Automatic annotation (TrEMBL):
The keyword Metal-binding applies. Coiled coil: none annotated. This is Mitochondrial inner membrane protease ATP23. One of its GO terms (biological process) is mitochondrial proton-transporting ATP synthase complex assembly. One of its GO terms (cellular component) is mitochondrion. One of its GO terms (molecular function) is metalloendopeptidase activity. Keywords: Hydrolase, Metal-binding, Metalloprotease, Protease. Its EC number is 3.4.24.-. Belongs to the peptidase M76 family.
């Protein structure tokens, strides 16, 4: 995504425009129907849109996962601009966000993101798709394995599975739980945006799982919590410095 405004994204035919908005995790059937009246509560001081913007700003400035991803995007020539590459919108259902490859925008569902922690997770997850889009020619629509790979990486590296993982480790000591969680979430994410059977989605995830689960870029490790993410960010900055001196 980001930083490549002249890049039309995978398959820019007009007929695909709508479908392209379904890329990555979520579906935005209503995104074209602008102008829906906001269902704000009289009692709330800020609108959902203002809250979304404020939480996004805090996420971009303070979350170590996001700070690392933003640095990595910049390093790969895809600098991210808050105004250009993020959009707070109302979404249908319980969708939290998505990456729109056709516009290189991350959509944040302002009606469904209710806390700073949730915003942190959604922005991190979507930035991993954006990072994959930036560094490689991802065939989001023609090869379901490409989508599967990015969903495995997003579930593995964004912390989506970490909280659950911690609880399970504490209570049941299941070492494999993280992998199981990543696989299940990747399959669900694919099914949310592709009209394919669960079996086809499972097959795609299984085919790419080993290599994509072990691809930890740009973190260099699985960042199980913010401390890990901070270390990963420090390592990335050192690596960046090292390479820029060669
Ligand atoms: Zn996703």
């Amino acid at each position: 995504m980001a930083g490549a405004p002249d890049e039309s994204g995978p398959g820019s035919a007009a007929g695909e425009q709508l479908q392209q908005q379904h890329v990555a995790c979520q579906v935005f059937p209503e995104r074209l129907a602008q102008g829906n009246p906001q269902q704000g509560f009289l009692s709330s001081f800020f609108t959902n849109n203002q809250k979304c913007q404020l939480m996004l700003l805090k996420t971009l400035q303070t979350n170590p996962y996001v700070k690392l991803l933003l640095d990595a995007m910049k390093h790969s020539g895809c600098a991210v601009n808050k105004e250009r590459h993020f959009s707070c919108e109302d979404c249908d259902g319980n969708v939290s966000g998505g990456f729109d490859a056709s516009t290189s925008q991350i959509v944040l569902c302002q009606n469904n993101i209710g806390s700073q922690a949730h915003m942190n997770r959604v922005v991190t997850h979507e930035l991993i798709h954006a990072f994959d889009h930036c560094r490689a020619h991802v065939h989001w629509f023609t090869d379901v394995r490409h989508l599967a790979c990015s969903e495995v990486r997003a579930a593995n590296l964004s912390g989506d599975c970490s909280l659950v993982n911690e609880i399970f480790r504490l209570h049941f000591g299941l070492k494999q739980h993280h992998q199981t969680c990543v696989r299940d979430r990747a399959i669900l994410s694919i099914l949310a945006v592709r009209n394919i059977s669960k079996e086809v989605a499972q097959k795609a995830v299984d085919e790419v799982f080993e290599s994509c689960f072990n691809d930890h870029e740009p973190f260099g490790r699985i960042p199980h919590n913010k401390t890990y993410a901070r270390y990963a960010h420090r390592d990335f900055q050192n690596r960046d410095r090292y390479y820029s001196n060669i």
